[in-house]
Amino acid sequence: MTIHKLSTPISEETVRKLEVNDTIYLSGTIVTLRDAAHRRALELHKEGKQLPINLDGLAVFHCGPLVKKEDDGWRVVAAGPTTSARMDLFEGEFIKNFKVRIVIGKGGMGKKTVDAMKKYGTVYGALTGGAGVLAAKAIKQVKGMEWSDLGMPEAMWILEVEDFGPLTVAIDAHGNNLFETIQTKADAEKQKIYRKLDLK
Amino acid sequence: MVTEKAVENVTVKLLQLAVTELPQDVKEALRRAYRGEENKVGKSQLKAILDNVELAEKTVAPMCQDTGVVIFYVKAGSQVSGLDRVEGALRKATVRATGEVPLRPNAVDPFTQKNTGNNTGRHIPYIHWKVVPGDTLEITVLPKGGGSENVSALGMLSPNQGIRGLKKFVVDTVINAGAKPCPPTVLGVAVGGGADIAMELAKEALLKPLNQPNPNPELAKLEQELREAANSTGIGPMGLGGKTTVLDVKVDYAHRHPASYPVAVVVQCWAARRASARIHSDGKVEYLTHKVAWKG
Fold first, then answer.
1. What value, to the nearest 5°, has the Cα angle with vertex A146 and ends A145 and A151?
2. Mind telling me how many Å the CA of A65 is from chain B's nearest CA?
3. 0.90 surpassed by pTM
């Protein structure tokens, strides 16, 4: 359960050293992408077009932030993670194409994503769901908003962060998955619970 | 007289209170969970939650970026005049609060996928009406987040399974939900009525304070049993492990059709937000869930 302070861009070598249950505090550039933005990024890639920002070595954040427009630009009010499972559809291919090193979200991800993380060198950092103000406090600047036609939650927000976290490494680049371990235990516990409730 | 403007202003305040400050009973339940949690990672999640709650309250900022779909419960005194204008006032307040608090725009057309940008749309905000005796208007706002709503479930069980079927369905729902609904959650559980009635009662059960046991001793026992069962899954805060998977379980019921046994489970994230106020005929406003200095 080591604590790591990391800055973007992050190398594959650094990511490979991280293990499940480690804690990360991240500084540098992170980019929010939800369902619609993942889909668009992959479509653009397929057409051979560039994304608004090179994601190599950066972190993707599953988040639809609450942002307020002020005189001198945007201010992030609350930015907790959204449920990552919805992005399972895209994330494996996304990691392969764009070489992001940390995927930040909540609730964990499925086997296809875990496999891609192992193959290409990416970890999943679990951020406390709903802790939106705490997360916003570590966001120092909104560097850009792209794809505004998708609406505030779905747009791509490019954020400058400082000591963003704590991120719990819940999936590492060696195929370990903390969520799966806990879910397996819960499934095993189920029979005991049934018995206790006199259901079987 | 209860004026349209008063309803609008009180509702903007309620929306702000709901998303920036948890009711005392929810805060206490989270603190209790933090003290009792033994899993290191789980405890760190509860710490982050409590820090976040404190910071949100201090800075009057929404504690979570998902400020939910806005749902109102209105208890309208039959002697209140101008009830036909209340809906308009609630919609206006929602639009205003979206800009002023702010709230995240969360109303999306299911066909065009277009976000209206102001949290209003067809049937949204949703309003539950109840006509009661008297001359006061009581408004409750329940901003309901999407992550927890997505794991809510309805089981049209067999009456032969009875209460055992209900217990199994609740345990299975909690385990299937895993980390997704931002545990520790609050479960609203209802049985009977019909598919829609069970779901409605289950959601309304989320408005009950967490520190009060069910007045019906049978239901209180069932709630405790379900709470203990859910908390022995080991899912824990944020699904990262621990013994706090639910903060509480609230059960309600309706009589059922002989052939049906509908069981509804509505899951609420740890940010169990709600706010209520009563507007009196003399214009006085009584806030029921939050401490607010009364301004005439």
1. 85
2. 6
3. yes
